[in-house]
Amino acid sequence: MITIRKSHERGRANFGWLDSNHSFSFGHYYDRNHMGWGPLRVINEDRVIAGAGFDPHPHRDMEIISYVIDGALEHKDSIGNGSVIRPGRLQRMSAGTGIRHSEYNASKTEPVHFLQIWILPEQQGIAPGYEEKDIAATANDLQLIGSRSGRDGSITIHQDVDLYAAHLGKGSVVEHTLQKGRIAWLQMVSGTIDLGETTLNAGDGAAITQEDILKLQARTDTEALLFDMAA
Fold first, then answer.
1. Nearest CA-CA partner of 158 in 167, 168, 149, 145
2. In the predicted model, what is the mean pLDDT of residues 171-195?
């Protein structure tokens, strides 16, 4: 079963400095039918104007992943980390017992475009933590970029989630086996793809359950994220 969440159906918040689309309920946007999918709680597609950003604010008991699509995102937190994240480098922050952080557009002239992803941890009250790694794009394949074990050079996620990045050229096809009892979410970043008999475009998402083989065929050059998760 594949249920499509079209890009234009997402919640939206536009504050001038921030233009954000919410796949699931977030902030002032509430939709009881879209509260998350499995342990996946938030996918916000954010665009922040030059020089602006999120002032220091707190989080608890959440795995927070920043995936930069274009531009540069500057991060600072209360456990001593500071970095500028650009496309090809992935960041994970475990809020655990409590952490404060800020996120700003590192450029004074260009916008930054990124996905902020929240995943519910399998255990509350862990020590706050931080990790970032290069995730150089693998052409025409699914690249593991996040996992519970941190295997194959992926970042560590404190939940039973395998996160894959897909960079597919026009006409390319990849398949992914979804083990029995697991669910998935496909989030489109750019391009157009056929997921089985369903077509997805930039910004669209797909909630997937009771499927054995996921077949992704790119109609155009495409970038997407695939979350393979415990139900």
1. 149
2. 96
